[in-house]
């Protein structure tokens, strides 16, 4: 089986200059959690996922050090506290980043396959621990022809009983 036989052909994309706010809104209205990002000519330039968007609101180091003053005869002590994602002021971060172009947060190094690629290659890509890929754009001459998700592969395997397309006895 080849990639073009399993891919979803009608792929929703976002433009590289769409704002973070626009993409967040679009993502909240769709049943999937990522979009290929295309340039003005429609060529693939990146991919943006929920994880990319969460990263702009979540500091890489979530430990805050707070100096606590003790009586004058003791040295100040630093206490580390772990801030949960819910404790961050998301509205301020959203306001700060909502107008930024999505190209500032997208992943530029996109793993892709061609339409004639064997589905085994797609499965290998989706099964790798690093990078953690959940969807593989199917690209021809720089243009997105389709997309294959982990769910697409699992559904196919469940329906056919294997990669060969025939159910096992």
UniProtKB/TrEMBL annotation:
Swiss-Prot/TrEMBL keywords: CBS domain
Highest taxon above the source species: Archaea
Taxonomic source organism: Halodesulfurarchaeum formicicum
PANTHER family: CBS DOMAIN-CONTAINING PROTEIN, CBS DOMAIN-CONTAINING PROTEIN CBSX3, MITOCHONDRIAL
InterPro entries per the UniProt record, alphabetical: CBS_dom (IPR000644), CBS_dom_sf (IPR046342), Diverse_CBS-Domain (IPR051257)
Organismal lineage: Archaea, Methanobacteriati, Methanobacteriota, Stenosarchaea group, Halobacteria
SUPFAM superfamilies listed in its UniProt record: CBS-domain pair
Residues of the CBS domain: 7-64, 106-167
Protein name: Inosine-5'-monophosphate dehydrogenase
């Amino acid at each position: 089986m080849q990639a073009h036989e399993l891919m979803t052909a009608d792929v929703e994309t976002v433009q590289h200059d769409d704002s973070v706010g626009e993409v967040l809104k679009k993502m909240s209205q769709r049943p999937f959690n990522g979009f290929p990002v295309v340039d003005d000519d429609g060529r693939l330039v990146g991919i943006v996922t929920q994880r990319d968007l969460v990263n702009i609101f979540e500091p890489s180091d979530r430990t805050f050090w707070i100096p606590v003053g003790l009586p004058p005869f003791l040295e100040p002590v630093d206490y580390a506290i772990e801030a949960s994602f819910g404790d961050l002021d998301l509205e301020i971060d959203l306001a700060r980043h909502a107008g930024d172009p999505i190209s500032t947060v997208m992943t530029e190094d996109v793993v892709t396959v061609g339409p004639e690629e064997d589905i085994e290659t797609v499965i290998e890509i989706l099964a790798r621990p690093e990078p953690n890929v959940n969807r593989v754009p199917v690209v021809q001459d720089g243009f997105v022809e389709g997309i294959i998700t982990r769910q697409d592969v699992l559904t196919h395997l469940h329906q056919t009983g294997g990669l060969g397309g025939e159910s096992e006895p």
